[in-house]
Amino acid sequence: MSDAARLARMIASARRIAVFTGAGISTESGIPDFRSPGGVWSRMKPIWFQDFVAREESRREAWRRTFSGAAGWTGAAPNAGHHAVARLWEAGRLLAVITQNVDGLHQASGVPVGDVIELHGAAGYAKCLTCELRHELADLRGPFLEEGEIPACRACGGLVKTATISFGQPMPQEAMEQAQAAALACDLFLVLGSSLVVYPAAGVPTLAKRNGARLIIVNREPTDQDALADLVVAGEIGPVMQAAVPTHGGAASATRD
Length: 257
Description:
By secondary structure, this protein is of the alpha/beta class. It contains eleven helices and nine strands.
């Protein structure tokens, strides 16, 4: 049996699927990854969280990048891989999407916001670092671009930052706890397009495997966790998942309870 056929069969037989996605699923929508040649960090140095908090020039540069679209994290459309994951949700067999991405494409593909666990935050809005009030980027754009006004919280006056998790910034505890709960509740843990080198997020698949779930990794390049997996499929995420989760349905649905 081919790897593609095994993948389709394992997905079809699972009833409680946790999907874990990395940059590799979104590069097929034209969003650059972080570390490869030509990726985001090869074109610009990351701004560390401590520098953002301490230095006005770092905050100004961070907002310049946000409103120029320099990182390329927003504005793309979901691809076949995202839509295949959404079909698992529609079939009632997807517990959660755990994503390292900040682009919001899983939500755009139809997975409800409450079922997407964003381990590294989101690029589509901003939050106050003091009171955590949400701020829409559209409301901040004009004052920054036209008047050079660095965003401040409209409620408490605190520093406002895009809701992504920067280098040096603590991981969101609630999101990590939700990811771990999904790993412990699933019978199949499906990794799509992650190199599995960024911790603590990369520890979530091993938690699922140790708890008895089958582990599948679909990625273009080998990962450090391939030896742990029940199945490793090398290839483009979109075509592989489109074949594994056909649009006409497949296995009978079950509840997410």
